[in-house]
Write a structure and sequence with these properties.
two-stranded parallel ribbon; mainly alpha; 9 helices; globular; 8% strand; 173 residues; 4 strands; 43% helix
Length: 173
């Protein structure tokens, strides 16, 4: 799966973001990619440093990860693409399946990063507003294909990503 990706400059993102997306793409498309978080699962509040498992959801409630965040943010700012990217750029190993250590500060930084990106070049990748499906049903594999689309065209093309990942049934719902 050798792809030619657009430069960070053409994507209007930083080199660190581009490099991180390339790494996340590989992890999300691998057979051992992050597990999916059911929307009714909770992890409990992160106080200080806590060990949690690496998992994925495009709409995991942040309140389960940082106290008070649910009122401020209605997205999955740590378990989604943007949350994974922010944590990766903060030096947290989100690429290796299994437990990771994450602090409340790292969670807060991820929340802010994802929220501030909504109306920038990464916004359509982090927030698939045009997609009429329940975001919590989007798999890491579909996200991996959306990242591939973004890196090669500058747009996530979520419908194509869902089809490539075998989730086209979500488009029919």
């Amino acid at each position: 799966m050798s792809e030619t990706f657009l430069s960070a400059e053409l994507l209007d993102i930083t080199e660190a973001e581009r490099d991180g997306l390339i790494q996340l793409r590989k992890a999300f498309l691998s057979e051992t990619g992050p597990v999916h978080i059911p929307s009714d699962e909770t992890w409990g509040d992160v106080k200080g440093v806590e060990t949690i498992r690496v998992a994925f959801s495009m709409q995991f409630p942040t309140a389960a990860l940082s106290p008070g965040a649910r009122e401020a943010y209605g997205c999955g700012c740590v378990a989604c693409i943007g949350g994974h990217l922010s944590l990766l750029m903060q030096g947290v190993d989100v690429l290796t399946p299994g437990p990771i250590e994450i602090s409340g500060l790292q969670t807060a930084v991820a929340d802010c990063y994802v929220t501030e990106a909504e109306f920038g070049p990464l916004g359509p990748l982090f927030y698939p507003h045009d997609l009429e499906v329940a975001w919590d049903r989007i798999s890491a594999r579909s996200a991996g294909y959306a990242i591939t689309n973004f890196l090669t065209t500058g747009k996530p093309h979520w419908e194509r990503a869902l089809e490539a990942a075998g989730q086209s049934d979500l488009l029919e719902a």
